[in-house]
Amino acid sequence: MDLGKGTPIATSLLDKLTDWRIKFWEMVLDEVGDLAHIVVEADDLGTQETTMISPKMYRQYIKPRHKRIFSFIKEKTPHVYIFFYSCGAVLRSDP
Q1: Pairwise CA distance, residues 63 & 61, whole Å
Q2: What span, in angstroms and rounded, lies between the C-alpha atoms of 93 and 95?
Q3: What residue ranges do the domains of the chain occupy?
Q4: 26: buried, middle or exposed (CB in 10 Å: 19+, 13-18, 0-12)?
Q5: Residues 42/69, Cβ–Cβ less than 8 Å
Q6: How far apart are alpha carbons 19 and 71 in whole angstroms?
Q7: What does pTM read for this prediction?
Q8: Contact (Cβ atoms closer than 8 angstroms) between residue 69 and residue 14
Q9: Per residue in 16-74, pLDDT tens?
């Protein structure tokens, strides 16, 4: 609901979660980044039937934060592949 309303608390929470994920990857990649070939990042974006939010909301709120995380991983360890997993039905439904 907060994302739908565009409340500052929602975006602030998303930013804090993104910062936390980047700190996590910094710690992990400092330890094993030279040995890793694939890293896994995951997010629950779907239900059993459809996505939890619209593609527009994903592009506005989530995608830029995913990009920050993925860019950090690739800058720190350019040789790794990123496997992104999402639980649920996340097939693209709009053109």
Answers
A1: 6
A2: 7
A3: 2-87
A4: middle
A5: no
A6: 13
A7: 0.89
A8: no
A9: 999 999 999 999 999 999 999 999 999 989 888 888 888 899 999 999 999 999 999 99
